Automatic annotation (TrEMBL):
<keyword id="KW-0732">Signal</keyword>
<dbReference type="InterPro" id="IPR059083">
    <property type="entry name" value="At5g19230_dom"/>
</dbReference>
<protein>
    <recommendedName>
        <fullName>Uncharacterized GPI-anchored protein At5g19230-like domain-containing protein</fullName>
    </recommendedName>
</protein>
<feature type="transmembrane region" description="Helical">
    <location>
        <begin position="176"/>
        <end position="197"/>
    </location>
</feature>
<keyword id="KW-0472">Membrane</keyword>
<dbReference type="Pfam" id="PF25884">
    <property type="entry name" value="At5g19230"/>
</dbReference>
<keyword id="KW-0812">Transmembrane</keyword>
<keyword id="KW-1133">Transmembrane helix</keyword>
<feature type="domain" description="Uncharacterized GPI-anchored protein At5g19230-like">
    <location>
        <begin position="30"/>
        <end position="156"/>
    </location>
</feature>
<feature type="signal peptide">
    <location>
        <begin position="1"/>
        <end position="25"/>
    </location>
</feature>
<dbReference type="InterPro" id="IPR045285">
    <property type="entry name" value="At5g19230-like"/>
</dbReference>
Amino acid sequence: MAINKLPLLLLVSVVLVFLNRPVLSDTDEEDVLFTGINSYRTLQNLTILNKNENAECLADEIADQFKNKPCTNDTGSATVPGTEPQFANYPQILAKCHLNVSDTRDGSIMPACVPRLDSNLVLTNFTKSQYSMNLNDSKFTGMGIGKEDDWIVVVLTTNTPEGSYSTASKEDSNGFTFSIGLFNYLLVFLLSFSFFLF
Ligand SMILES: *[C@@H]1O[C@H](CO)[C@@H](O)[C@H](O)[C@H]1NC(C)=O
Ligand SMILES: *[C@@H]1O[C@H](CO)[C@@H](O)[C@H](O)[C@H]1NC(C)=O
Ligand SMILES: *[C@@H]1O[C@H](CO)[C@@H](O)[C@H](O)[C@H]1NC(C)=O
Ligand SMILES: *[C@@H]1O[C@H](CO)[C@@H](O)[C@H](O)[C@H]1NC(C)=O
Ligand SMILES: *[C@@H]1O[C@H](CO)[C@@H](O)[C@H](O)[C@H]1NC(C)=O
């Protein structure tokens, strides 16, 4: 009898493993930009930037602050240095991302506004604007990307204490994803197993 259930069991396992794959559609522009920036770094003979979870959190929060601001020719990557918008709630935003001013000082926050986040324009807004100075800089070692509506924000981090963006214990976030992943595999295992019981 168990033999007859084998094809069904395989099918269910395959479907569950497939469902277990992360949904990418929501983060597409971020992933494309992440890859684009690292290709640019490689062309410049610079080290690639690793993903930094706290920087990504900050990038998401900053994008959220910008989301209702319209795109104009003097916002985002075209902002005149020194006229960047200041957020009164910046300390709270940092705290939310387990950061404080002392471990973010050397980092760099780069917001860009591109209608519908057209991926080619998004990349050139970083590689062909004033931001390229930062992308050309070997002191940066990590990055986080966040987006909201037409705004996409890149936060660069260094490996010095003043730019590490690493106040929070890393296990927090990684441990969480890990347990979700583990739970899914456990579910597949349990469901597969239950078929043998029938
Ligand atoms: C990167 O290194 C290659 C090989 O050493 C060199 O030909 C190229 O000009 C370098 N590119 C830059 C942007 O420095
Ligand atoms: C930005 O747009 C305004 C109004 O359309 C225009 O007067 C100004 O010259 C533009 N600035 C640049 C740098 O293109
Ligand atoms: C920022 O966090 C670091 C590491 O936890 C701590 O040593 C430092 O005192 C904090 N600085 C401020 C201004 O809160
Ligand atoms: C940045 O994006 C805007 C669209 O908001 C576009 O008009 C501009 O040309 C882009 N700048 C660069 C340097 O790619
Ligand atoms: C960054 O490097 C590229 C290629 O070497 C260069 O075209 C660009 O002007 C540099 N950006 C800055 C701001 O120096």
